[in-house]
C-alpha cells in the first residue's frame, strides 16, 4: 500500500519565470530572497523556499517523511488575481509543468489542475485540455473566487464536467474571510483558512451544488476547517430558519459527500473527524512544505486509535480510489 499525500504545494520553475516576466504589468511581483522567493499581487502575498520548487529536494522530502506519492497543487496567489488571459496563461503553465513532472516521475508525482475561474468559459476549456495531459488527476479550486462563492451558477458547467470525468475537486483557502480582523498574529492563516473552508462547504451544501452533482467528489483541507465542528449548529439552523426552508435534508447528511485531509494538528480533532465522517472519507495531507503543515504525516495517522484497515485507508487506499490510481 502506497502512502499518498493529496495536499502538497508546488511552484514550477516555468510558472515562476512567467510571473517574473509578465506579472508586473498586472500588479504582481516575484522576487528572489535569501530564503527562496516572495510573491505579491494586489491583495495576496506569499513566501516560500526552494524546496517548493526543486523536484529533487521534494522527492528527498517525501522519502524523509514516508510519502510515496504527492498530488501537486498551486497555492497562493493561484491565478484568479490576474486578468483572464494572463490567468489562463498561468494556469496552462502550471498544468503543463505538473504533467511534465509526472512524466519524469510517473510513480510519485501527479497534478491537480489549476483553472482561470475568474473567466468560467476559459476555465471549462482549460479543464477539458488539462484532462488530456498525462498525470493530471483532479481540479484545484480556491474556497472563493475573488469574492464569488462556490455555489455561483457560472461555475456549474465546470462542476458538471468534473463529475462526468470523475475528477475530484480539491479546495484550498487563498483570499480568506475577515481580512480586516485577522491581520495580526498570523490569524489570516490560523483562523482565516479553516473559517473560509467552512463557508465554502456551507455554500456548496445550502446552494444546491452537491444536490445538482450527486457524484461530484469535493475534498476539504485542514481536516474540514470549521465544518465538522459546527455541523450541529448548521443542522439546527436548517430546522428553524426560513432562509434554509429549501433544505430537504439536514446539513449533516452531506458530511460524507466531502473527503477531508489529516491536517488537524491535534490527535483528538483528527480522531473525532474519523469517527464523525468515517475512515473511508479521510485522506493523508501534509501542506508540504509550509511551516503550518505536517512534518511527520505518517506518524500523525499512526498515533490515532485506529484499526489497521482504517489506517491503511487513510494513508493511501482512499486517495488511490479518489485519484483513480487503482
CA gyration radius, whole angstroms: 19 Å
Q: Compute the separation of the termini in Å.
A: 11 Å
In this structure, how is the largest beta sheet organized? 8 strands, parallel
- Low-confidence residue ranges: none
Secondary-structure-derived class: alpha/beta
Listing every helix as H and every strand as E from the N terminus to the C terminus, the arrangement reads EHEEEHEHEHEHEHHHEHEHEHH
Estimate percent helicity.
Answer: 40-55%
**Side-by-side strand order of the widest sheet:** 1-5-6-7-8-9-10-11
Q: Count the strands? A: 11
In one word, what is the shape? globular
Mind sketching the topology for me?
Blueprint (H helix, E strand, L loop, with lengths): L3 E6 L3 H10 L6 E5 L2 E5 L4 E5 L5 H11 L3 E5 L10 H21 L4 E6 L5 H11 L5 E7 L13 H10 L3 E4 L14 H4 L1 H15 L2 H4 L5 E3 L6 H14 L17 E4 L5 H11 L4 E2 L13 H6 L5 H16 L3
Parallel strand pairs: 1-5, 5-6, 6-7, 7-8, 8-9, 9-10, 10-11
Antiparallel strand pairs: 2-3, 3-4
Helix pairs in contact: 1-3, 3-4, 4-5
Tell me what the structure shows.
This protein is of the alpha/beta class and about 325 residues long. α3 (about 85-105) runs parallel beside α4 (about 120-130). About 50% of the residues are buried. The protein starts with a strand and ends with a helix. It has helices spanning about 15-20, 55-65, 85-105, 120-130, 155-165, 185-190, 190-205, 210, 225-240, 265-275, 295-300, 310-325, and strands at about 5-10, 30-35, 35-40, 45-50, 70-75, 110-115, 135-140, 170, 220, 260, 280-285. The longest helix is centred in the N-terminal third of the chain and has 21 residues, at about 85-105.
